[in-house]
C-alpha cells in the first residue's frame, strides 16, 4: 500500500485527525508493519499494551472470553487507541482470521510527536475529553434508569 493510501486511512480515524498530512507522513515513516498469517496471534489478553495497530488488510478477531462472542476488526480500524497514550494491559486476544497486514504505532513515537506538536496534543485532548464526557453521560442515564 502506498503511503498516500495509508494517510487516507489515518485521516478517517478520530485519533489521527489532529495531525497534519506531513505529520502523518512522519508517523508512517517511523512506524513498522507486520503481516500475520491466518490464526497467528497479534497479542494476548493481559499483555502489556505499548503500541496501537491499524489494520490495512485482512480480518482480526478480538476475543475477551471464549463464552463472549468475538468482535471483528476490519481494514481501516484502529486497535489499541488508548495504548498510544497510556500504559495498560490488553483486554482481549487478537488473532488474524486471514492473512492480515497491520501498521504498528509505538506509544513512544506518538508521544514524541505530540510533544513536538503541542497544537495536535491539545486538539487530541479536546476530542478525547468530548468522548469521555459522552461516555459519562451515557452511564449517568443507565444509573438514573436503574434507580427509577
Features:
single chain; 148 residues; alpha+beta; Jelly Rolls; four-stranded antiparallel β-sheet; 4 helices
Distance between the termini: 53 Å
Q: Which stretches of 5+ consecutive residues score pLDDT under 50?
A: none
Silhouette: globular
CATH homologous superfamily title: Jelly Rolls
Q: Tally the helices.
A: 4
- The CATH architecture assignment turns out to be Sandwich
The number of distinct structural domains comes to: 1
Give the DSSP E fraction (strand runs of 2 or more residues): 25-35%
Query: Taking strands numbered 1, 2, ... along the chain, how are they ordered across the largest sheet?
Result: 1-10-4-7
The H-and-E topology, N to C, reads as: HHEEEEEEEEEEHH
> How large is the radius of gyration?
17 Å
Fill in the CATH topology.
Answer: Jelly Rolls
Helical fraction equals 25-40%
What order do the helices and strands come in, and which of them pair?
Blueprint: H1 3-11, H2 21-30, E1 32-36, E2 41-43, E3 48-49, E4 51-57, E5 60-63, E6 71-73, E7 78-79, E8 88-89, E9 93-96, E10 100-106, H3 107-116, H4 118-147
Antiparallel strand pairs: 1-10, 2-9, 3-8, 4-7, 4-10, 5-6, 5-9
